[in-house]
Structure formats: structure tokens, C-alpha cells
Amino acid sequence: MRQDTKMPAETEEFAGAIASPASARGDGATVSIRNLGHSYGELTTIDRLDLELPADGVLGLVGPSGCGKSTLLELIAGLQEPSQGEVEVGGALGASGRLAHCAFMPQRDLLLPWLSAIDNAALALRNRGIRRGEARNQAKQLFERFGLAGFERARPNELSGGMRQRTAFLRTLIAGKPVLALDEPFASLDAITRAEMQQWLAGALDADPRTVVLVTHDIEEALYLCDSVIVLSARPMRTITRLSAPTPRAADRDEAVTHPAFVTVREHAMQALREGTK
Amino acid sequence: MRRWLLPVLFLAILIGAWQLAASSGALADLLKLESYAVASPLEIAESLWQSRSLLAENAWVTLREMLLGLGLSLVVGVVLAYAMHLSGVVRDTLNPLIVISQTIPILAIAPILIIWLGFGIWPKAIVVLLICFFPVAVSTFAGLGTADPEATKMMRSLDASRLQILWRLETPTALPYFFTGARLAVVLAPIGAIFGEWVGSSSGLGHLILQDNGQLETARLFASVVILSAMALLLFALTALAQHRIVTWR
């Protein structure tokens, strides 16, 4: 993980506050994909894909719309079984094992409108049989740290887009899984909120490192948030190139994305993306 | 305001016109009837007051039949909906049978129910059940299936078991659908209770209506109809209130 962003003082406390039976701090799991193929009937969406991701690595997947990025994410998260090849997460090969290691965050926030913000965030705890009061207590500490204090009791329709997304992200983090599978988490936000949320996520991941697979359309987002970025082709999906994000990066997002080294890598990525769309 | 005022105003105009037509004898002439066979709204109101204890006694009998039948309908409808939602075998078995059950003319089997169950409250409640479980079962079942598949994936990824997904995601999603079915059931319930009473009973508004029909007690017959309609409206309003209190997120 990057060492250059802020909040070193908060880091220790923060990590301690997360309810994570499966993972102590920085205890992400490895992800490896070998000879992966996937098809719906006649339609081949993924063709012989290989991929390695170290524990606590943050990987971005960028590719044209409909190339199968979301399917790949669901395969990693254990929500689907591949037609061929292997997906291994934290040593688990079967879907239920992968499901146990991954927390999947879908494109839309999908907060349940009948639950308050805090009950939405605490869903994973409730699903594990933790009583409501105790689950709320654990989630409440994180609400304060994530700038949501005072909104615990608010219903989702009373929250702004950015706050909804933070709540959804908290819900994913609280699950305490070593791997986070994020499907275009900021796609629905306006440009300014998206930039804010990207910086916020960078801070959150520094405080509580996990292995992250981030699917996005946005090359800048991928290069800013991830250690490495894989550019994928249109269907059937294959890897065009894997790029390392420029390091070190400035803590401030605007500074980071305008740095000459960043701009150069972004150009490479754009070039690769154009190639893959052809 | 407008939601109340317009229908009330329109109803008042209709009743006024009816009153004029009945009291001037125009309605009786038009229907080629003696004037005593046509009741005016004022006569109905008068009958409501004069026969109040008789009407109340019989209304209570009918209301109990409706409530028992509705209670059974909600339980049976919801249980069927969940069973069909959770099991493909149950769904494929029951789906056609539930539709077939609605093609059976209730009036044809009501006499059999009287033979089997006697003249008490049960055959009436069963007729109400046979009519009213259907909208509850069908709409609740449909509602359970409308949960967002992406939300289901999210829940699975957050370690939810099948039952937890059912309770925390699918059931709240289905609640508004359940209430739609319940509101339909509530307005159908008086029809069921009256059917049941017509086939065999010694009390109840349906029983009274049959008697008044035979004796050309037109005003009291209409008074029974007014009470039946008022009871159904009241139950409908209570259902809507319950929905408003429970489904707070819509």
C-alpha cells in the first residue's frame, strides 16, 4: 500500500475499530486467476485470462462497456462459477470459499430503504447473528470516522449521493472480508463528489488495507486508487496491458492526477484502451 | 381536500337526484312499479334509524364472518406465497391449482359447505376464504419475486443465509404488494359473507336482505346494503392505515 497519504495518527485507532474476525489489519488475501474462461451459451465473454494479485494489492480493471468486467468481478467474489479455469481467493477455489473471503459492492449503492443508515451499514454483522444493539455499536464508531456522524438514524432517501455511497462502502468494509470487489462504486456520482469520494477511499484503504479489485470505466480513477491497472479488451475479454501506477503519489488527488508521471501513464492506458476497443 | 371533496360532492348530487326522482314518483313510473317498491334516500335513512338494533345485530354476525374469513385468507395467502417462492416444486404444483380454484363458481359449492359444516360461522368464513385468499397469495408471491437481483448478490456477499435474504430483503420488498392484495381481499369479503348467508343462515345482513326482498321492505334492504358498504369501507381504511404505518419508506 501507499505510504504517502495522510492520516497516520488515525490509522491505528481506525483499524482497531473495524469488526473484522477474518482479517487483522493489512491481512488481505491473494487472488489468482488461471486460464479462466467464461461463456453464456454460445457467447464467450472471457477467454483464457490469467491474473495474479498479492495480498493488500489494489488492482484496477479498466475496459470498454460490456467487456465482461462485472462478470469477472462476480467470479472473483464467488457469486458465479467459471465455465473453465480456476479462480483462487485466499487459497479457496470453490464459490462458497471465495464468497467467504470477498465483500462485493455493486454499482448502485442498493441501500435498503426500510433500514436506517446505521442498520444498512451493519447488515453483515446482523447476518452473522450479532444482536442489533451490539451491531449498531460497532457500526457507530465507524460512522464518526467516516464523516457520517449524526446520520445514523437517517433513512437512505434522506442522504446525499456521496453519503449514500459512503454508507454502502462502510457496509462493505464492516463485513471484515480480506478482499473487496468493487464494481464501479462511484459511477453514479457527479464529478466533484466522485473526486471527493476517490480521495476518501484512498484514505480509508490506507487506514485499513485490504486486497481490492476495482472495476471502473475511469482510467484516472483506476490509476489514482490502484497499485496496478489492467486494461482489458472488448469481448471476448483478454488482457491488453498491465500498468503500474506512478509512485509516489501526492496525498491530494488534484495534485496526484496532474503530476507529469501520472499523465504519461494515463496516456499509455488510453492508448491501450483504444487498441482493445477496435 | 380534492380527493375527498370531489367524490363526496358527486355522491351528494346522485343521492339528491335519487331523492327527487323517488319522492316525485318519477322513478316508480319509469320502472313501472308501485311507489312502495321504490325507496328514497330519506326513507332509507329513516329505516336505518328505526331498525337500528335489528340491523346492528345482523351486521355484527356478518362482520364476524368477514373478519374470520379475512384472517384465514391472509394466513393462507401468505403461507402459499412463501411456499411457492421458496420451492420450485411447490410453485409448479400449486400455481395452476390456485387459478383453477378461482374458476369454481362459489355459489355452486356453498351448499356443500353448509352440509359439511352446518349453519354456523364456519361455512361463511370458508366462502370468504375461497374468494379472498387469491389476491393475497398472487400479489404477495409476485412481490417476493421483485427483489433486486443485485441486492441479493450484495446480501449473499455479506454472508446472508437464504432465510436472512428472505427476511431482510425479500419480505420488506413484498410488503407493499401484500397490502395491495389485502385491500382487494377486504372489498371482496362482504360478497363472500353474503353468498354464504344466502345459501343457508338464520341471521346476518345477507339473511336480512333475503327476507326484506321477499317482503318488499325496500328501504330496509337498502339500509343493509349501506351498512355492508360502510363495513367494507372501514376495513379498507384500516388496511390503508396499517400500510401507511408499516411501509414507511415509500
Question: Descriptors for this entry?
Answer:
heterodimer; A: 278 residues; alpha/beta; six-stranded mixed beta sheet; three-stranded antiparallel beta sheet; 11 helices; globular; disordered N terminus; B: 250 residues; mainly alpha; MetI-like fold; 2 domains; 84% helix; 0% strand
Report what the structure shows.
The complex is a heterodimer of chains A (278) and B (250). With 278 residues, chain A is of the alpha/beta class. Chain A is 40% helix and 21% strand. Chain A contains 11 helices and 9 strands. In chain A, strands 5-6-7-3-8-9 form a 6-stranded mixed beta sheet, with helices on both faces. With 250 residues, chain B is mainly alpha-helical. Chain B has 2 domains: 1-38, no CATH class; 39-246, MetI-like fold (Orthogonal Bundle), CATH 1.10.3720.10. Chain B has 11 helices and no strands. Chain B is elongated, with a radius of gyration of 22 Å. Chain B starts with a helix and ends with a helix.
What is the structure about, briefly put?
Chain A has 278 residues and is of the alpha/beta class. In chain A, 40% of the residues lie in helices and 21% in strands. Chain B has 250 residues and is an all-alpha fold.
Low-pLDDT residue spans of chain B: none
How far apart, in Å, are the first and last alpha carbons of chain B? 21 Å
**Sequence of secondary-structure elements of chain A:** HEEEHEHEHHHHEHEHEEHH
Give the largest interface pair and sizes. Answer: A-B, 27 and 19 residues
Task: Please tell me the overall pLDDT of chain B.
Answer: 93
